[in-house]
Amino acid sequence: MKRCDFDLPFLLRYENVAWYENGTVRILDRRIYPTEIKFVECASYREVAQAIADMVTQSAGPYTAAGMGMALAAYEVKNKSAASQLNFLRQAAHDISHARPTTANRMSIVTEGCLKAAEGALAAGKNVCDAIFERTIDSLERRYGTMEKVGEYLASLFPKGGTVLTQCFGETIVGMMLRAAKKSGNALKLYCAETRPYLQGARLTSSCCYEMGFDTTVITDNMVAYAMQKKGIDVFTSAADTIARDGHIANKIGTFQIAILAKHFGI
């Protein structure tokens, strides 16, 4: 099977986001990437929840870590009765989904889906850990497949040889828009605002852009107005924590001021 993460940067490959194997979940430590490539290894689902809370992984990374953490939880109680396994997994689903308060609603969707996979596996006499792991991979394939279409559409809005300003790290959409631009031969120039406090733009977005072969420049957050005025920015694109159906977005501190500047400069 050709996975949807083909030809994407290192940190967007499934195994390099978060991965369950043999009673351990390993999570790429995005707090130090790309200066250092290091994985945090978790031997229990509680350690996965703590890693999520500690911002070891960011953007959409916690959703993958949540699914892998649920597979690990199933492994922890694999020799218990069906009732004990379900009770343990329900607690794990709550603990993992609430590890970071700002994403509890969406994380709950992930962990509840894993619970349903577990219930189905138990009813069919199948391996629960495998069922949750496979469900997590299927979910990744669906998300990456959807974001591939979004990325192709976004890339179609970029002028040939255009200059794009980014903020934060939009995870899959960043990789997909870059892959689409590269496929179409569009030699973009990218300016990545650093994005405080975790510098996701400086470390994660810029490393993806550079790894994909694009001309990439990191700027501090207070250089945005200058870059828009002097560097020919054509498009501004930002990550978003939540997008409402009416088009409004909720995001971290910093997005609002860039949006105002984009309006001022007609970008």
Task: Set down the secondary structure blueprint.
Blueprint: H1 14-17, E1 18-21, E2 24-28, E3 39-42, H2 45-53, H3 61-76, H4 82-97, H5 104-124, H6 128-156, E4 163-167, H7 172-183, E5 189-193, H8 200-211, E6 215-219, H9 224-230, E7 235-238, E8 242-243, E9 249-250, H10 255-264
Parallel strand pairs: 4-5, 4-7, 5-6
Antiparallel strand pairs: 1-2, 2-3, 8-9
What pattern of helices and strands is seen along the backbone?
A: HEEEHHHHHEHEHEHEEEH
- State the shape: elongated
Give helix % range: 40-55%
Helical region count?
10
Strand order in space, largest sheet:
6-5-4-7
Structural class: alpha/beta
Arithmetic mean of pLDDT: 95
Amino- and carboxy-terminal Cα gap: 41 Å
Strand percentage: 5-15%
- Would you count the extended β strands for me? 9
Main sheet summary: 4 strands, parallel
Radius of gyration from CA coordinates: 20 Å
Low-confidence stretches: none
